[in-house]
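Example for tutorial group B:
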């Protein structure tokens, strides 16, 4: 997948394209449908498929006080775009100047002059241009004028929930990771460097790996069944296989700590070099975080959490075997 960071870079690649546009936070099931659709149309038209997204998120510039915590920081978003199989990704720097472009100017400059679009696929809630004046119907009209077709995909629903980034954020904030994962089409995960803790866990309860400061969204405070992958060298792109784990998101009230954090207890040995980073994928919520009267009580509860987590993975494996058969 080719990645462009400006219109000038993208313009150097001549030829027709089939495009989709959006913030694409989370790359959830509805986003994947858009990406699959542009791939199919591009093959039919002998064109290249390209997704257009923005960095930072437009709300961070226009209404920073209301900017959402991201489901997928940009590096993870790029990986998910690449795994979708599209040909190209254009990451437009979102600025106040760009926000003032009219729908007509945006379409003419980006889809017309730069990308030579022959087809565009968007969702029915897509808005663009100054004051979000551009609607799917406006895109259709501008497309007729500039010579490309516009396909509008309806909203996707699953289990009576609209598949959207905002709905997934709401579910995560409520601790409903299982349902959030269904809308995402994969387990929600967080990734970052490992931070050295205070050593309390290894001495008084169980050893844990602590995620460094994280700016994206986290699930509600509580204890979760998770997969954890280990990076030996942070940022190297080399990860271990997923390791079974149980993870606490919270403020560690038993020890009087107050800063929200993520700490993971591995349920299988890590025999590689000292880990530099980790990616934690959330599968199932076990319980709320609570304050215990002593480290001994906390350790006893953690052992119960471990047993429940192991039973979860046993059921998961039985289900996988049944599906394969």
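The residue assignment follows.
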């Amino acid at each position: 997948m080719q990645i462009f960071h400006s219109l000038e870079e993208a313009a150097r690649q001549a030829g027709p394209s089939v495009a989709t546009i959006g913030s694409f936070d989370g790359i959830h099931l509805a986003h994947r449908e858009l990406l699959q659709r542009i791939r199919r149309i591009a093959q039919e038209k002998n064109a290249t498929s390209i997704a257009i997204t923005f960095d930072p998120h437009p709300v961070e510039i226009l209404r920073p006080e209301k900017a959402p915590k991201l489901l997928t920081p940009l590096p993870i978003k790029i990986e998910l775009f690449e795994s979708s199989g599209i040909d190209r990704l254009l990451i437009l720097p979102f600025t106040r100047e760009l926000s003032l472009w009219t729908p007509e100017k945006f379409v003419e400059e980006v889809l017309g002059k730069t990308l030579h679009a022959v087809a565009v696929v968007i969702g029915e809630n897509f808005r663009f241009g100054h004051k979000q004046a551009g609607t799917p119907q406006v895109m259709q009209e501008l497309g007729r004028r500039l010579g490309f077709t516009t396909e509008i995909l309806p909203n996707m629903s699953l289990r009576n929930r609209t598949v959207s980034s905002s709905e997934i954020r709401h579910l995560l904030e409520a601790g409903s990771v299982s349902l959030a994962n269904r809308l995402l089409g994969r387990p929600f995960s967080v990734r970052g460097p490992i931070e050295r803790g205070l050593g309390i866990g290894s001495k008084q309860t169980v050893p844990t790996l602590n995620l460094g400061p994280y700016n994206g969204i986290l699930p509600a405070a509580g204890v979760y069944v998770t997969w954890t992958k280990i990076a030996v060298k942070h940022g190297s792109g080399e990860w271990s296989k997923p390791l079974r784990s149980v993870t606490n998101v919270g403020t560690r009230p038993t020890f009087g700590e107050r800063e929200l954090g993520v700490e993971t207890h591995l349920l299988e040995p890590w025999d590689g070099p000292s880990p530099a980073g980790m990616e934690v994928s959330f599968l199932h919520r076990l319980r709320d975080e609570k304050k215990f009267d002593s480290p001994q009580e906390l350790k006893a509860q953690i052992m119960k959490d471990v047993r429940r987590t192991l039973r979860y993975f046993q059921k998961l494996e039985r289900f996988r075997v049944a599906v394969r058969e």
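The first helix runs from residue 7 to 11. Compare this with the pattern of hydrophobic and polar residues in the output above.
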